[in-house]
Amino acid sequence: MNDIVFTRRSGWIPKVIREDGELKLVLGAGADANHDPRTFTFSITEAHLAVIREDLARHLLLWCAVLPLCDAAGTRGRLDEEAAVALLDPVLLSAPADVDALFQRIPWDRGRLIAHGADIDRLERGQVCAAMRAATETSDGKRAQKYHADRRRTERGTVLGPLDGAILMYTGQYLHGATVPRRIPGAVDPAPLLPEVMRVIATAEQACAGMRIGRDPRRGKRATDKRDWDRMAAAVDAAVRRVHPELVDDAVRTVSFLMCSEAAERSRSAPLEDDEQDAGDRAVSGEREGRTILSFTDDKGLEKRWLPDGPRTATAEFWEFVADRSAADNEVFTLEDEERGEGIQLHFYADSIARITTVNEGVGGSDPEYRVEYSLVDGIGGYRKLVSAFVRGGCAALEPHGSWMSDVAEFERARRRRGTE
Q: Does residue 92 surpass a pLDDT of 60?
């Protein structure tokens, strides 16, 4: 039977139990193969218990010295109890200078001490006992995360100034640079840093005013155009560096990331018809009113038909069809006007397009005769222009929007030349 002899308010700090008359230290650390927390125990003496009761700093130092042994045990290994017991006297009963010297030789969990209020400057100088004078039972995990984030930056040669740090706090990227940035004014000291941050944000907003990041249905319903993203990021980056040359790369990048992610989200949230209209190549509402039915097909043989009197435009319907169906093994889509005998075939895997026109319908059982011409396409923006032009005016309307080649060998040479540029 186990009796709890001593515990602190924080449930994670090791506690002392009496098991079959023997004192043991119990701590939770790591996880097993099922991701459940692991618990480790090892024996201590009454002298060790007395220090643990009275001296929070030594208690925390022992904890962070034992944790690497728990990590070494992994998901199913045993704690090296001899090594754990060997730490008791040096950590709990030695003079401060000897404890400091010990911590120069052994692995220990620095972040745990920082979360419990350790003085970071003294820790860095190896004065662990002095660093723990302000230790608290309560833990501040974000303080440790901030410390580790700063260490990672220092290791790659980045030192943040006050404004750099404030910008990262404002965007929520101080601790984790890979998170999607957002605006958090409350995270920044309102005086004097927040006004300085807002001036940087205003510079970025002016730099990308009027720019947009369109969607890229080739990669799904929520995917956005990488080229649009890169253009906006470059514009913001250049402006911010010019107006605020004192900022480090981390701060500049997070501002660019903020502007681009917000623009991308606006595009994703807009109805597809609005997205098409913003692209500048959509026909007016009712673009094919009174004209013919269009059919859309993919490389898997699925077909969808668009009716001129439907509630949505042909371009919007087509790109939604692409977003729903496009995949690594489904990258060829066709838009056809059967009545006119013409269509276009989009080859996303090759950044190319074919326009197909019926030259001879075929009579008496003979096969129809088609004219097929190819052109290279410059990204999703190029595809949008071509699809919108075809919807408005058929194959004839495509003439200004590409260099059309009927010779397949000539087209393949053009593709290879582009691939080497």
A: yes
